[in-house]
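Exercise: predict the fold of this chain.
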Amino acid sequence: MDAQAVSGWQGRSVCVAGLGVSGRAAARVLAERGARVTVVEARDDDALREHAERLRADAGATVRLGDGDTLPEGADLVVTSPGWRPDAPLLSAAAAAGIEIIGEVELAWRLAHDGGADGAADGGAAPWLALTGTNGKTTTVRMLACMLTAAGHRAVAVGNVGTPIVEAVLDKHDVLAVELSSYQLHWSSTVAPYAAAVLNVAPDHIDWHGSFDAYAAAKGRIYAPGTVAIVNADDPVSARLGGPGAKGFTLGTPAPGQLGVVEDLLVDRAFTPDPRREAVELAELRDVRPFAPHNVANALAAAALARAFGVPPEAVREGLRAFTPDPHRIAHVATVDGVDYIDDSKATNPHAAAASLASCRSAVWIAGGLLKGADVDDLVRSCADRLRGVVLLGADRARIAEALARHAPDVPVVDVPDTDTGAMDRVVSAAAGLARPGDTVLLAPAGASFDMFASYGARGEAFAAAVRRLAEGR
């Protein structure tokens, strides 16, 4: 898109809330289009100062560090980073003043379609195949991008997977595979994907949204008039959000209008000329990696979005085979004394942990972290008969211990209160002491990592390193 031809942003006074990846990208794109940009960020450290200097020098933006509460004078639009809560003082002040608040996703849609006036559709922009869900988003969007590429499309996975959408929409693509979080959807109003899927909905981020209903409603914003709606037929909330006429995917035998599993095959009875009489083979179960029931559901969701866009069956299979799983997602670390050690540190909420535990026959479960307001009773109740033992760590481990006492009182539990750099070695050692040959020691924490680690990746790396040390000591 020719920046000089776009006048919708010229002279506008825009406040960008947050100096993270999406905030920096939004600030640059807006400044290139003639907006007067002020970036505000509550934090102040060396890395942020470096980013601030680059924005000032390269984009002419004003950057305010160490003050995230005060709305810049004269601002007529706020573009907020997804992590900012709606009740943040700056956003509350903007809302009270009648100033529109949008997110980077909404900004990207407007830039791609009309330059900023109201988000009205423009046939020249690359269509979006969008997905959201409590779990599986990144895996599914990357599977989808592989399928689209296998079909010969110029496609890229964007959103929560690294590339800011405001940058991607200005490049030349045939189609975008877009991962959207509930935060991003909360601040979107005109986004209208070509096709969209809600993978699953379970309690998460309740502390941000205020209630489960508000969280689910944010997920449902992914469906717009005219969007091909795709739902998880096995998930009641997803099925409800899609409304009548939605296509579905299921781990069972598919009905007309669904994708599903027949014996060892993934099949399509939704996007075929005669769904009532015809089922098209897409792939085999062994094409899904890593193999686990919830990952088969991810593959079916990706296939549904791809098929909605006209991707042929052979490209679905090729895409699944080309897909390389990200680290810390049901990753096999080692087998020690007949026990498999699995890193699923990305299981940062109870729903993800339940899916991971469901793939194990007998597990020593490593759990704990920040639960973000989520309840763990259903999780513990559902997996109690699979537990050989449990090792707990992290800030909210006592809440998991209480649920275990209620629903799995006979399962041995080891509490590791330590938070130093050697804590994971003690966790892994305790797990090894509980495990028997044939068991799985599974790191599926059900909570976020920030109480002890910089990220879920750092937590997974600490686990893998501790397992390797255990193996070397044998």
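Check your answer against the key: The mean pLDDT is 94.
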